[in-house]
Design brief:
- It is built from 17 helices and 26 strands.
- The protein is of the alpha+beta class and about 650 residues long.
- About 30% of the residues lie in helices and about 35% in strands.
- The radius of gyration is 34 Å and the shape is elongated.
- The chain has a domain at about 410-635: Penicillin binding protein transpeptidase fold.
- The strands form three sheets. It has a 22-stranded mixed β-sheet that branches.
- The protein starts with a helix and ends in an 8-residue tail after the last helix.
- α8 runs parallel beside α14 (about 565-575) and α10 packs across α11.
- This is Penicillin-binding protein.
- One of its GO terms (molecular function) is pentosyltransferase activity.
Length: about 650
């Protein structure tokens, strides 16, 4: 009796399930269109779009078919359209809320990003979602684990194991300029893909090739893009730069951890890279091979490049460590905390100097060295307390020596050489730095008061350091971060000298790196004695508009020889070294020093007294009124013939 009742219940349930399944199957197209139309209406209302399609239906139980889809922002050009799309999904995965695309067939896709003047057909993509409130938006945006997992889930969920995409066109157009990617056929076969891509940019026509594979279950992706001298589009128009390479390869996998982190492990490599931008270097930068083996850890509040990662450019390799973290108790008051470090133990020096990208370090090209080097670097910046900033940088050597110079004789300052001053990249004054120049002044013919005043103003430890003052750089970096601009440089006299003698023409980002290496070589190898370096510095320094060298400066301002300068005159000349073209700002209209200069004069005088260059009594008697201009400098306050 009981068995009969159980049997009836089971049969009834099976019949109900059958009827339900049959109903869903029969009305699946109507159900799909109802859901789609509801979603489309919401998108149209939220973003101001017109979305239409010719036909939407189901093929079998698990294939969605769409014909003639168009997405047009209101009063804008068409953003997206295609002729037909067939998507086969995993039915059982879908029942559990997991979208799994098994196969895609797409034909005639046209995606157009068009901007005319300040109006673009993709503006709506940058509008904030009305469904995200201000209170939880910041929480979501700072949960980096959630963001990366959502992105990866979407990526691996939407990538089909099989598919064919034909007649694809993706275009970016701004006024009369455009970039267009045309893909006649993109094939995915058992998670392997390949395609040819035609790239059109204004008058440029390129043929690219791409291939790769992915494994959604193992969360792994590998892709390669290559072409002979592939030129990256859009870069020149947007940034004024030119970037070319022969091949670019990237592969990564997502690893599971037990501590709530998301780990991405992989490798990216570029070969035959060429980069040009006038702010990077006046020459094209060439990198034969660059490679990054990365291990990235993503936590809710931080992104970290683990020190097991490896960077390779040409023959040089090193392990970097980077971490960016948002810290703070309240969400709206979180500040960034950055840590960057490199520790490179002893390695052959030629790995460094032989690997420098061609075009980036012009003066060091062809330099031959022998011996061992080791490098340590640390930068720790907590923006909530900038005074705690840590900065360490040290390049050590062992049995190191220069075998031969390359393009530039780095020891040329030891003897007389020809110096050219540049302004805005153009030569304005050329003269020999040595006895053959009538204005050259040997160090022992320059007033000790002037020598020490300039040194105490610019670099009081010049004769005792090896080219760098990490503490000064640290203080300059703290100040620059506080004011959010490059206001101080922390440069030593050695650094200023190298900048003027070797790098005066090139005002670009790479110059600082080349400057640091040249300073290290000159100071470490004693290529030029310190006294001669200071002599050169005082003889080429700019002391006013087109006033070069201490001989011209002493004559221009005071009608004196450098050996005759007084205490106040020496301090004044030291004060204008940082901004020589603006010396008149220190004076009133009648040629007398501004009262605001008195503090600086007192400071330098006190430093000179501590060095026992002058007495405490002399320091106390310093008077800015003793600076009386004569000659050309005095007449400039009457005639405005130059500024």
């Amino acid at each position: 009796m009981i068995k009969r009742k159980i049997t009836k219940v089971i049969v009834a349930c099976l019949m109900l399930l059958f009827l339900l399944s049959t109903g869903i199957f029969i009305f699946r197209g109507s159900l799909l269109r109802h859901i789609a139309d509801k979603r489309i209406t919401r998108l149209e209302q939220r973003y101001g779009l017109d979305i239409s399609y010719n036909k939407l239906h189901m093929k079998g139980l698990n294939t969605i078919s769409i014909d003639g889809l168009n997405v047009v922002p209101q009063k804008r050009d068409t953003l997206l359209s295609f002729q037909s799309l067939n998507i086969r999904i995993g039915l059982w995965k879908l029942l559990w809320g997991d979208i799994k695309i098994k196969e895609v067939r797409l034909d005639g896709l046209s995606l157009n990003f068009i901007k005319k003047d300040s109006t673009a057909n993709y503006d709506f993509l940058f509008l904030p979602s009305s469904e995200v409130t201000a209170s939880n938006e910041s929480n979501i945006s700072t949960d980096y684990t959630r963001r990366i997992n959502t992105t990866l889930n979407l990526l691996f969920g939407l990538l089909p194991g099989n598919g064919e995409l034909t007649h694809l066109t993706i275009t970016e157009r701004k006024d009369r300029n455009f970039v267009s990617f045309r893909i006649p056929r993109f094939v995915i076969d058992d998670y392997h893909f390949q395609s040819e891509i035609t790239v059109l940019e204004d008058s440029l026509n390129q043929q690219w090739n791409t291939e790769g594979e992915f494994n959604p279950s193992e969360r792994r992706l590998h892709a390669t893009l290559h072409a002979p001298q592939l030129a990256v589009p859009y870069i020149h128009r947007r940034f004024g730069a030119e970037v070319q390479f022969d091949s670019l390869t990237c592969n990564f996998s997502q690893e599971k951890t037990n501590n709530g982190l998301t780990c991405l492990v992989g490798q990216s490599e570029v070969r035959g890279l060429q980069v040009y931008h006038k702010r990077l270097s006046p020459e094209t930068i060439n990198l034969d091979r660059g490679q990054l083996d990365f291990h990235v850890n993503v936590s809710p509040q931080a992104v970290e490049l683990d020190s097991s990662s490896l960077v390779r450019f040409n023959a040089l390799t090193f392990h970097p460590y980077l971490k960016a973290e948002r810290i703070g108790k309240s969400t709206d008051k979180k500040e960034w905390h950055f840590i960057a470090s490199v520790r490179k133990p002893w390695f052959p020096s030629e790995e460094l100097f032989g690997s420098l990208p061609k075009g980036l370090f012009e003066n060091l090209e062809g330099l031959g060295t022998t011996g061992q080097l080791a490098y340590h670097f640390l930068l720790d910046v907590d923006f909530s307390q900038l005074d705690s900033l840590k900065f360490e940088s040290e390049l050590k050597e062992k049995d190191f020596r220069i075998l031969h110079y390359g393009k530039t004789n780095l020891g040329k300052m030891s003897d007389e050489f020809i110096y050219t001053a540049y302004e805005n990249g153009q030569p304005v004054y050329t003269f020999p730095v040595g006895p053959s120049w009538e204005n050259f002044t040997p160090l022992d013919s320059i007033s000790p008061l002037l020598q020490m005043s300039v040194m105490q103003s610019e670099d009081g430890a010049f004769f005792y350091h090896r080219g760098f003052l990490p503490d000064a750089m640290r203080e300059a970096l703290i100040h620059d971060l506080e004011v959010r601009k490059f206001a101080r440089g922390g440069s030593t006299i050695s650094m200023q000298l190298v900048k003027n003698v070797f790098l005066n023409r090139n005002k670009n980002i790479a110059r600082k790196l080349e400057e640091a290496l040249i300073v290290w070589l000159i100071e470490t190898e004693h290529l030029t004695p310190k006294a001669r370096m200071y002599e050169v510095y005082l003889n080429i320094a700019e002391w006013g508009p087109m006033v070069y060298g201490i001989h011209e400066a002493a004559s221009f301002y005071f009608n004196k020889r450098p050996s005759q300068l007084s205490l106040e005159e020496s301090i004044f000349l030291a004060s204008i070294v940082p901004k020589p073209k603006h010396f008149k700002n220190s004076f009133t209209a009648d040629g007398r020093l501004q009262e605001s200069q008195e503090g600086y004069f007192r400071l330098i005088a006190e430093r000179l007294a501590k060095k026992e260059v002058i007495t405490d009594a002399q320091a106390a008697q310093v008077n800015i009124n003793n600076v009386v201009l004569k000659g050309v400098a005095k007449s400039s306050f009457v005639s405005e013939s130059w500024q």
